[in-house]
């Protein structure tokens, strides 16, 4: 028992027996739990209110939205906003977002996995400096290098292409993913790689057949992180695409913000429509994602 616990166990003024001191400690413990649960409940309500407001607004008519009295439940209930968003305008942005997100996940995960494996298994001059630079790039705001990037993309003719969106998003997400994968690979004993190579595998074969199957949680966490970053990317599609058929879902949602008016119902329906794939993917991979981030951060 620590000194603090012994002091807390001693009778307080007005408590003459050890039984009263024990009762006092139980009251303190219960009170602390009630306060903690109260804070968590308030935090949960605070986080859920914007989601409920968006969901409720997506089922409201324009007249209901513009009423001075706020209705928490749509009156009347309508699917018109979803009908407009899905059937009329969202299919091309959805296609573009899927292509960019999947392309970024595949290429980004390959590069980050190889870089993370090299950082975990090999020692080479400048390794610590290189990893430190990767950390610094995580903190660098993307807008700082937009102008030189735009000039370079114009010179090599990559404007209005999927390649420019994939490459720029990769550059943004790879540093964190490299550190994440490095932490996972360091948790796997190098002796397993050596044993695989003794059995006749090359270094790449040992990585593919032995190390990667043991790093499924890290791969899932890295893939989900890259997917969310690519799916939500707004700045790069805004700057590096001009054609309407190259717009992604974030730009599609931005189109509902007019200069004089905002179409709140369709904007809310579009937001729910755009968030649905990410939410479903997170539900499927949430366990691997959370465990992957924890293990990667602990070992990294």
Offer a quick outline of the entry.
With 300 residues, this protein is mainly alpha-helical. The protein has 14 helices and no strands. The chain is 75% helix and 0% strand.
Question: What report would you give on this structure?
Answer:
With 300 residues, this protein is mainly α. It is built from 14 helices and no strands. The protein has helices at 3-9, 18-58, 62-65, 80-89, 91-121, 127-139, 146-155, 162-186, 190-198, 203-211, 216-232, 235-240, 249-254, 264-299. It is flat and about 75 Å long. The two termini are 34 Å apart. The mean pLDDT is 84.
Q: H/E order of the elements? A: HHHHHHHHHHHHHH
Q: Runs with pLDDT <50, length 5+?
A: none
Q: Please, what is the average pLDDT?
A: 84
- Strand segment count: 0
**Span between termini:** 34 Å
Count of helical stretches: 14
């Amino acid at each position: 028992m620590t000194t603090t616990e012994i002091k807390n166990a001693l009778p307080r003024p007005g408590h003459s027996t050890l039984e009263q001191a024990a009762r006092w400690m139980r009251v303190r413990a219960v009170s602390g739990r009630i306060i903690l649960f109260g804070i968590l409940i308030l935090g949960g309500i605070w986080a859920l209110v914007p989601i409920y407001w968006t969901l409720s607004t997506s089922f409201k008519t324009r007249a209901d939205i513009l009423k001075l009295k706020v209705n928490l439940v749509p009156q009347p209930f309508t699917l018109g906003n979803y009908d407009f968003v899905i059937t009329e305008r969202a299919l091309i942005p959805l296609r573009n977002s899927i292509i960019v997100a999947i392309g970024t996940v595949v290429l980004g995960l390959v590069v980050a996995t190889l870089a993370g494996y090299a950082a975990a298994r090999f020692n080479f001059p400048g390794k610590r400096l290189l990893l430190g630079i990767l950390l610094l790039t995580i903190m660098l705001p993307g807008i700082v290098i937009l102008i030189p990037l735009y000039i370079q993309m114009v010179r090599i003719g990559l404007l209005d292409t999927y390649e420019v969106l994939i490459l720029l998003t990769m550059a943004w997400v790879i540093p964190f993913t490299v550190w994440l994968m490095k932490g996972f690979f360091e948790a796997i004993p190098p002796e397993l790689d050596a044993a695989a190579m003794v059995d006749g595998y090359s270094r790449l074969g040992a990585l593919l057949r032995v190390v990667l199957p043991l790093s499924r949680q890290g791969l899932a966490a890295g893939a989900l992180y890259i997917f969310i970053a690519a799916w939500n990317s707004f700045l790069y599609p805004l700057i590096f695409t001009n054609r309407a058929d190259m717009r992604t879902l974030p730009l599609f949602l931005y189109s509902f913000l007019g200069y004089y008016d905002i179409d709140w119902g369709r904007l809310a329906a579009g937001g729910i429509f755009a968030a649905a794939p990410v939410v479903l993917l997170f539900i499927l991979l949430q366990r691997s994602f959370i465990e992957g981030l924890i293990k990667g951060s602990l070992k990294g």
